Amino acid sequence: MVAAVAAGAADQPSAGKGELAFNNHCRTCHSIKPDDHRQGPSLHGIVGAEAGSTGYAAYSEGMKNSDVTWDEPTLDKFIENPDQVIPNNKMKPYTGLTDEGVRQQIVDFLESRGKSE
Ligand code: HEC
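Above: inputs. Below: predicted complex with heme C.
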C-alpha cells in the first residue's frame, strides 16, 4: 500500500517541493509574478510561451532570435543545460541542474503556479 510512494515522488503533486526547488535554484534571478523582471525575466505564464517574449529588456540575441516555445520537455532540457537549447544565451552563471526529479518539480511548479489566468 505504500507502492506509490516507493515508486518515486515525481508523479505526486509536489507544489511544496516545487516551490522550494524553485526558490533554491531560480529565485535569485527570477520571480513568477507578472512583469516582475529581475536579473532574469519574470517566469509568469512561461509554460507555453515563446522564448524571449515577456517584455524583459535585457534578453540576449540568442534568446530573442530563438524559435523555441517553452513546453514542458523544452523547459526541462533548458534547465538541464541552457546552452543546448539556446546557444549564446546569457543565463549565467547558472550551469544546469542534473537532478531529473528536481527539474520535474520546478517545471510542475511553473506550470501550476505561474499561469496567466
Ligand atoms: C544567475 C541568474 C539566473 C538563475 C539562477 C536562473 N536564471 Fe533563468 N534566466 C536568467 C537570465 C539572465 C535570463 C535571460 C537569458 C537570455 O536572454 O539569454 C534567463 C532566462 C530564462 C528563461 C527564458 C525566459 C523567456 O522569457 O524566454 C527561462 C524559461 C528560465 N530562465 C528559467 C529558469 C529556471 C527554471 C531556473 C531555475 C532552475 C533559472 N532560470 C535560473 C537568469 C537566471
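Residues 25-26, 28-30, 39-41, 43, 46, 51-52, 54, 59-60, 62-63, 70, 75, 78-79, 89-91, 93-94, 97, 106 surround heme C (CB under 6 Å).
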